[in-house]
């Protein structure tokens, strides 16, 4: 079941399109590039195909398949972007739909979870002020296509 007003549900329903479209999809999960404004090339989102707000409410099948999806997403992204590190995290505060941010950290970006979050926040602010450009939809779509080719499930 999808919920009106939920950004993740809107993407799943096709009302909003991620650059490059679906990278991978199975019975429970979808992997896509992050939406506009795209802060980093290769910043991917793994989201549950049904609306669910709490990890404790995943079905056994959804929970059992999650690790493999995360591992394969990180592996494919590593082949394409070749980051120094990949961070996978879930907040679920603004978009109350189970989803995971897959964030490639290049060697030029700061090391550490807190430092990376500050970096992303500053980058977003600079982009909003027009001091730096967003990653283009074309660049994000190109990376999505390359990651799709590397996906091993």
Automatic annotation (TrEMBL):
PROSITE patterns: HIT_2
Top-level taxon: Bacteria
Motif (Histidine triad motif): 97-101
A Pfam family annotated for this UniProt entry: HIT
Domain HIT: 7-116
InterPro entries, alphabetized: Histidine_triad_HIT, HIT-like, HIT-like_sf
Record's protein name: HIT family protein
């Amino acid at each position: 079941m999808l919920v009106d007003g939920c950004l993740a549900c809107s993407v799943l329903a096709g009302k909003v399109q991620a650059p490059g479209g679906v990278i991978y999809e199975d019975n429970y999960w979808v992997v896509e590039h992050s939406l506009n404004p795209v802060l980093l090339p290769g910043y991917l989102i793994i989201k549950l195909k049904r609306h669910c707000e709490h990890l404790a409410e995943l079905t056994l099948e959804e929970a059992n398949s999650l690790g493999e999806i995360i591992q394969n997403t990180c592996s494919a992204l590593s082949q394409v972007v070749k980051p120094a590190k990949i961070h996978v995290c879930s907040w679920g505060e603004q978009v109350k739909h189970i989803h995971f941010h897959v964030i490639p950290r290049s060697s030029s970006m700061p090391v550490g979870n807190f430092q990376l979050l500050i970096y992303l926040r500053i980058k977003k602010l600079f982009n909003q002020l027009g001091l730096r450009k967003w990653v283009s939809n074309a660049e994000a779509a190109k990376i999505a296509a390359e990651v799709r080719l590397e996906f091993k499930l």
